[in-house]
Amino acid sequence: MSDVEYVLEMNHISKSFPGVKALDDVSIKVRPGSVHALMGENGAGKSTLMKCLFGIYVPDEGEVQFDGKPVKFATSRQALDAGISMIHQELLPVPFRPVMENLWLGRIPVKRYGPFKFVDNKKMLEETKTLFAQLGMDIDPKIWVRNLSVSKIQSLEIAKAVSNNSRVIIMDEPTSSLTSNEVEQLFRIINELKKKGVAIIYISHKMEEILQISDEVTIMRDGRQVGTYAAKDLTMATIISKMVGRDLTHRFPPRSNTPGDVILKVSDLTSAETKSFRDVSFDLHRGEILGIGGLVGAKRTELVESIFGLRPIESGSIELNGKAVVISSPESAITKRMALLTEERRATGIVPMLSVLENTILASLPRYIRRSGLIDEKRCSIDVDKSIDQLRVKTPSSKTRIKDLSGGNQQKVLFARWLLTEPEILILDEPTRGIDVGAKYEIYTIIADLAAKGKSIIMISSEMPELIGMSDRIMVMCDGRLTGILDGKTADQETIMRLATQFM
Amino acid sequence: MAENKNTEDFQTRSMTRQKAIKDFSIKYAIYLVFLALVVAISIKAPAFLSLQNLRNILSMSATRIIIAMGIGGILITGGTDLSAGRQVGLAAVVSASLLQFMSYPRRMYPNIPELPIWIPILIAILACALLGLLNGMIVAYLKVPPFIATLGMMVAAYGVTSIYFDRPPYGAQPIGGLRKDLTTLGSGYVGFDGTYSIPYIVIIALVVAAIVWVIHNKTRFGKNIYAIGGNPDAAKVSGVPVQKSLLAVYTIAGALYGLAGTLEAARTGGATNNYGNGYELDAIAACVVGGVSTSGGIGTVPGMVIGVLIFSIISYGLTFINMNPYWQQIIKGAIIIAAVAVDIRKYLAKR
Fold it and tell me: Which of residues 371-410 of A touch B (CB under 8 A)?
């Protein structure tokens, strides 16, 4: 190893996508044996920066230096071979194989017997044990990875990075699914790594963690670097003020809705799943937009999916129009005139190979069946064309495959799908995620119009400006619990952030 | 209070015991089915439990085990191979045509001299290995889904075999008059007499199974195919040579079908272009009953062998107790579905 001051430097990185400047002159310098935290709201550019490092994106400007030499990685494999590993939020194990085989996958030790090479199980086991001992990890090398907890799988990935002789390890939201004990464990491992001279880039929302573990902190906002600071000079308050604080005018349409009486009343709802939400109570009024804020992992999606009958409930009650109801499945939620636009548009929303028309009528198909048992195609296409017009979906025709539309237009088709079911309550889970800025405004307009027509809307969002700009009231969750309900007119980002981190 | 606590303790203990029994039965479901079958048949016909029957069942299973060893490896990578049966047919025809005895009047090749036995066998194995390699290339490089790739190969391989089979001077007719050394390989045995002996083909099948077990468990290649089937993305980013491994798996499978086809010809004393038809489905059924997952990443050699044996016992045992063969079909079908329905509980997500 050479004695460079910084093991990794990313200098003046800029990257634009059509319509958006995702990164604007961002520089970070990482010292060996240190933890460099990267902070910012969703969409601030943290992941784009890391993707530029791993060759997933090619930056428009700027250069990367590793170990004092300029480098350009074309694939994440090249970065890995050079000594830069990433522990992804979604982990990548081979489930039904032993821990040690996962650890050494791709370079399993072998021993030569004449012309044959056989796996050296003894050596593999010993090296695994030594490595785990060095890192203070307590994992049985022989059990199936499938039987490990998320935190153990994460430890395994870290061990894999270490065994690869990685000198820089990037951890993306490493604690999002860990318990506090497990976080302590992770921090102990990080300290071990620091002693070995490994540099860590630590991406997280959680301020307390960052203040506890990091040496330096780079804060990003809207693709720009607010600054890099020594962690000891920062407090939670200063971080919040640096992360938020931006111009909010004209990003949201005017709203003319007036919330009426209570349509949905949720009382003391507790999930039947472990480590999920508990004791959540709130009201939703007719014609109201109720925002749900919180950090990733606050169990907001789990809450709305439970209300919609997708996940089991342990206790608590739901009242619809003053009557207690049991919603055991999405079908029963739909017949009670509720609709859910899921967070993962690609995974659980669109059917990519089907046309705009087919995607639109999917949830209300029974209404288009003629007495003969065949589909009334004429009425379908009249209604779909009407929706396309109303929601201003940009598509060549209703017969175009939905996969060929932009994210924003796909989302509009999903709105059209659920509006055809004539719902009274619309639940929107991150309705503008992955949608470019221009299309966002159109989605906001649709939401505002619906509320003005008396529809009740629950909107989960991780973007605070969106929450404040669109909601009549904002409920904030942290760690599965409701931490406060704010008035949309007076709410500010600092208060939301404080509530969202109340138990951290 | 103390009493209360004891009852609770007792309850939790009996619950954990129930759970342990359930886990045990799920884990060893296949073996329990196997045992239940043997017991049921033996009660109906106690004579079933004899060395002679065991020997018959084993010889019946030998070539199927070899085919299952080939197809099992492919299933572990998350693939499948519908061309296995037709490849067996090709090997049977090729090796039989080159191993007819000199004085047989209708030799396919009247003019070639008597070859050492290993040459025709090797040619048959290589021919199938080549088809396997082709399968592998289509799957690994052209990215054609294995089901489609091998479906095409299944159809085409039958064509190849039939062209080879239907040729002058005598046209399409069963290849007979096989040499003594070949038929001995198929029906000979080591030991004293019919009962206290082990057929050669059983020994060959067990040796093949042992070698495949070593490949799957003791080589880097073996570990890699499990990783490829278990999580292709993880395998790729970890630097596993995914494409080369796939080529190797399909090629090895082809070679094994080649060996199995030769032994089928040897065992039955002849060959036609229809040999092996449908064997791939039997082999896939045996593998999944033996605990191999068709979605990849899961499966063991002993499981595959047991899977084959279960089907042989069903055919042999149920015929032994004079069960209507159509009923046997229904039972086989039910066992395939039931075995997988139980086995899959091991892997389903716990919610």
Answer: none
